[in-house]
Structure formats: C-alpha cells, structure tokens
Design goal:
Layout lengths: L8 E4 L5 H10 L4 E4 L3 H8 L10 H11 L2 E4 L7 E4 L14 H11 L7 E4 L7 H12 L16 E4 L9 H7 L2 E5 L2 H11 L7 E5 H31 L4 H8 L22 H8 L5 H26 L6 E4 L14 H13 L3 E4 L16 E3 L1 H7 L2 E4 L4 H4 L3 H4 L3 E4 L10 H11 L1
Helix pairs in contact: 1-3, 4-5, 8-10, 8-11, 10-11, 11-12
Bound molecules: nicotinamide-adenine-dinucleotide.
The site of nicotinamide-adenine-dinucleotide has 25 residues, from helix 4.
Amino acid sequence: MLSEEKPSVCVLGLGYIGLPTAAVIARSGCSVLGVDVTDHVVDTINSGKIHIEEVDLDGLVQGVVARGTLRASLQVEPSDVFVIAVPTPFGDNNIPDTSYVMEAATNVAAALKVGDTLILESTSPVGTTEKMRDLIAKLRPDLKVPGLTNDIPDIAIAYCPERVLPGKILEELIQNDRSIGGITPRCARKAIGFYHRFVRGDLITTSARAAEMTKLVENSYRDVNIAFANELSIISDHMDLDVWEVIRLANRHPRVNILQPGPGVGGHCIAVDPWFIIHSAPEQSPLIRIARDVNDRKTGHVLERASLLIDELPGVSIACFGLAFKANIDDFRESPALKIAAKLARRYGGRVKIVEPYASELPAAFEGTGAQLIDIDQALETCQIMITLTDHDMFKSIPLDERAGKVVYDTRGIWPDQPDNRKAVSKLRLAG
Ligand SMILES: NC(=O)c1ccc[n+]([C@@H]2O[C@H](COP(=O)([O-])OP(=O)(O)OC[C@H]3O[C@@H](n4cnc5c(N)ncnc54)[C@H](O)[C@@H]3O)[C@@H](O)[C@H]2O)c1
C-alpha cells in the first residue's frame, strides 16, 4: 500500500466508539467495512440508519452509506487496516473480561496479509495488545509478527485508546490528542500514518503497554478526584456544612481545583476502568481501590439521606430528577441515579415519580414498583419532595420561584439558590 493510497479499513464492533470511528474514516474517503456480531446492528447501518444516540451521527452514517464508503457485515473481510472497538467489561469479582477482544482478533487473524495494520482501541488491561499479538502469532505462523521476529515484521500491531465524550464524539474523535502505542516504534509509525487521515489533534507515539496504562490512568484520575469531592460531601453532611460553598471557597486558591460531588460514579468507563489497574497491581493501588469504595458508598449515603427526608413527610409525592449517569445523555448504564431512584421506588412505591426527559419509558428496574415517568411540569405541580440525581440542563433552568416551598435534596448542586429545607418541611408537616 502506498502512503498516498487510501487504505481499506475494517472496524470490528459498531457501538458508541466503533460506529462513529467507522463513519469518520469513511468520510475521509477510505472504503470501510463495519463488522458486528448483532444482525440488527448490521441491518440498521446498511439501511443508512443508526442504532445508538449520538449528536449528528445519523446524518453522517446516512451520507457515507449512501456514497458506498461504509457498509456493515457480520463477517470480516481482507482489508489494509483493522480497528477493534469491542466491549471490555468486567466479570465476577471485577475481573477484566478481554474475551471479546480475543474473539475479534481471532476473526481478523484469518484475513491478515503482509503489510496490514491491526489496531486495538478497546479500553484494555496492560498487556492485552501483546496477548492479542501472541494469539495472532499462534493462529498465523506464516506471518512474522512484531516483537517476535528479528526481521522486518509482516504486519504492524498498535494500541490507540479513545477518550471521547458521549454527546461530542464526532467532534472529539477528530480534535482530541491521541496516544499511539506500538508493539514496536515501527508499528506506532504505521498507526500514525493511518490516524493522520482523520485526526487533527496531536498523535503522540509510545509503547502499547504505556498507551494501555495511560487510558486507565485517565479514568482512574477522574474517579479518585470525584471520590475526594464525594468524601467531602459526606464529611460536610456529618458536620452540617454546605459542601458546595466549601468547595467554591477552596477553589479560590490558585492551585486548588476540587471537582463536584454527586450521587456516585456511573457509566461504563470511570466506574469500570480503575478495576483494570487494581486487578493488575492490587498491592500497589490502595488509593485507587479506596476511591472506588468511596464513590460506591456515596450512592448508599444519598439513599439513606433521601429516605430520612421522605420519612419525615409521610404520604407526600417524591420526584426523582434524572436517571442518566451524567448530564444531557440517555445512557443509564451503571448509573447511580437509576440505582437510587429504583431503590426509593421499591421502598415508597407509587409515591415516587421519575422525571427523565431522555427516557420514553421507565427502565426494567422500576417494574412492579408503581413508580411513574412524568414530565417537569407534572413534577412541579404534584410533588413536594424533589431529589436531583442528574444535572441535565433542563433541570438547572427551573427557576427558584417554581421550586419555592419544595423540600429539595440536591445531590448535584444544580440549585445553589434553593433555601434551606427546614421551613418547607415544617410547613408541609403542619399542612399534613
Ligand atoms: N463509549 C464510550 O464513551 C467509550 C469511551 C472510551 C473508550 N471506550 C471503550 O471502547 C470499547 C467499546 O465501547 P462501546 O461503548 O463502543 O461499546 P458498545 O457496547 O457500544 O459497542 C460494542 C459493539 O461491539 C459488538 N461486538 C461484540 N463482540 C464483537 C466481536 N467479536 N466482533 C465484532 N463486534 C463485536 C457489540 O455487538 C456492540 O455493537 C470498550 O472497550 C470501551 O471501554 C468507550
């Protein structure tokens, strides 16, 4: 393949990462085959539609499918570059599960030819790219693989993690800097040549192991720093202090930047990736391990405090604002907001109402609880207790006069002007 020629590309795994990546590469003019194990995913993409929510992705996929630069299949086909973006969940006891990566690599092995590049993008424990390389070497003894030959290798293998923000994936895929970790420096240079076609951010080369660790460190950094904020909020509750005020004041220090507390940490990255480090180095990672505990414990703390408030006001309706794990998205995976709202619904039944503009129906966790999905206006009209669990912009914009007289437990600090609850609680108790 000459460097001016556009490589043919095969992207394995067409989810939140793989589909936008495949579409952006196809827009750069490369011929892209997207491979997934799910019929529905393949059929949807081939009809020019998408099966996930992401800003502007529908128009892009429709365009590249119509132009014929992106098509989807259940089968891998020979290509110049293979990109693996399959799930890397954890299994029992938080042990990382790399079986999807190895299955995808097995399928790629049969299609590899001299000159090809294989890139792993899935968030992975350190050493996964080398394990994938070893698997390829075993399945394809006819190929000279990097790191296991003294000759020039026949193929290049690299690890290039993704650090996009859901809701801004198409923008960040192109603009963010990326770590490009080669099994050898030559592999990294091959991978850079590929990413240069569609990434405008800086491409920084390193080893595969360092790139794997970098990705895990980024999310562990977030987790540890959120844990500090969450621990401060638990301490402040204990000492009857306003944590939001304390953090606001502390952040006036020129070298202090404390993050915001919340009801816990959710999603499939920040709450998951630290375990990949803990599993590899349990004795060496006490801080990361404790941060995970603190963030999980914060969810129980919120549940307990919400219940105390609700128990003070029997019979009163309760609105839980938000189920998503973070603002302005429809992703409820591993969401502490959903866990808290579902537990309250099981405890208080039909008194609990859910306000979630990003849901068309309540998730399965609410089945049989009697909880109802309502909109913001209904909540303001019918619920006296309001618990904020997600900081959607739509919630933030509810003005104080519409919240006046409500009993509010604001776990996200979205309504700093909300008066102390004591007056509202005693008024409601008198009325009750
Ligand atoms: N979503 C994010 O914001 C994000 C950000 C950074 C990194 N990541 C990482 O990227 C990887 C993919 O995450 P995602 O959110 O896109 O997952 P996802 O669940 O949205 O999509 C994964 C897709 O892979 C398919 N798949 C499973 N096994 C396969 C196989 N053997 N061959 C082909 N396809 C297969 C699934 O059917 C699914 O459609 C994970 O390692 C994740 O940790 C995700």
